[in-house]
Specification:
The chain is mainly α. The chain has one domain (about 10-50). The protein has three helices and no strands.
Length: about 55
């Protein structure tokens, strides 16, 4: 079982940051900005990613 750095709610952003070698803070800012601006469906995408990640 692997652990992710800075795992918060469901660990999706931490998982993506490890997978794509991106800063976890930047991913969280992108998800929050997408939610505020209403781009796509960030909540649905987040839930799907939470179900898909190992």
């Amino acid at each position: 079982m692997s652990t992710y750095p800075d795992k918060k709610f469901l660990g999706v952003c931490a998982w993506l940051s490890v997978k794509f070698d991106i800063d976890v803070s930047m991913l969280r800012i992108i998800f929050v900005a997408a939610f505020i601006l209403g781009l796509g469906s960030p909540i649905i995408i987040y839930i799907i990613l939470a179900l898909v990640k190992p």
